[in-house]
Amino acid sequence: MSPEVTASYAAAGVDIEAGERAVELMKAKVARSRRPEVVDDASGFAGLFDVSALLRFKRPLLATSTDGVGTKVMLAQALGKHDTIGIDLVGMVVDDLVVCGAEPLFMTDYIACGKVVPERIAEIVGGVAEGCRLAGCALVGGETAEHPGAMGPDEYDLAGAGTGVVEAAELLGPDRVRPGDVVLGLASSGVHSNGYSLVRHVIATAGLGLERELPELARTLGEELLEPTRIYSLACLELTRTVEVHAFAHITGGGLAANLARSLPPGADAVLDRSSWTPQPIFEVIAGYGRVPQEEMDRTFNLGVGMCAVVPAGVADVALATLAARGQDAWVLGEIVPGSGEARFRA
């Protein structure tokens, strides 16, 4: 071994100073997601949350969820736009929590990248913090890991975990759902964060460029596909405080029928009316340019319905008015009938 050769972390591709600068750049954005229960840890090794706030519960149940954003990150990287992908991450996590009626309390995130570019990392984490603000939860910590050699300099991936709380007596789920209930559909903002492997396949096979302006869309294809996932947690929680809610279903991978079926009891079906809404034009683009059959679209994408709420028929009008007051487009999507635990479209 030559005595002149000196190894270092920096020579191996890890820039500690860049990581420290990224932390400084993101601090102000993270602070905007703060909740009163957050306690500062001077060391910075852990996020602290004052659980004495849970004393108001008779029997608090903690709920937890973890997720990522899939290959949607590849489109963010291709377009050089990194400030909204974190919103997607929060939406995928907190809207799973709220399905059982849980209020999201806090999140942590994890970013792996080939090279720490402080400004880029700050944009990503700024999106996570904005998502937490929209969800009413706090971003209490996270980690950025530099993986030179394992990932390219412009590549990154992100994941997150969230914790929420729900009163045991108010836990929502299939056991509350009854025939005669109605299913409300809550509009999505677009594709959200599922099915992007199929989206990228369609883009590649159809020869579509992300900067292309299509007649079906009011903006470029890339801008449409990067529209962040809608965060429903605050609207859903407001709904539970206003009317009786039996169940929610977060419409993610697997599509509308498969996800809604997870919130149904064995003795009931959800019968949905496909004519009750019109999916956003982006779904027409994917189906048309990719020659994707309806069955495949149904089981891959949300098709314009990002969340469902199951409520008694008698409160449907009040529920819709409550959602409208929060700026959430919603409608009666279907009904609950005796059955075998399936969700299906009306023939």
TrEMBL record:
Organism: Sphaerisporangium rubeum
Protein name: Phosphoribosylformylglycinamidine cyclo-ligase
Pathway the protein acts in: Purine metabolism; IMP biosynthesis via de novo pathway; 5-amino-1-(5-phospho-D-ribosyl)imidazole from N(2)-formyl-N(1)-(5-phospho-D-ribosyl)glycinamide: step 2/2
GO cellular component: cytosol
One BP annotation, GO: adenine biosynthetic process
UniProt cross-references to Pfam families, sorted A to Z: AIRS, AIRS_C
SUPFAM superfamilies the UniProt entry points to: PurM C-terminal domain-like, PurM N-terminal domain-like
Biological classification of the source: Bacteria, Bacillati, Actinomycetota, Actinomycetes, Streptosporangiales
Gene name per UniProt: purM
InterPro entries assigned to the protein according to its UniProt record, in alphabetical order: PurM-like_C_dom, PurM-like_C_sf, PurM-like_N, PurM-like_N_sf, PurM_cligase
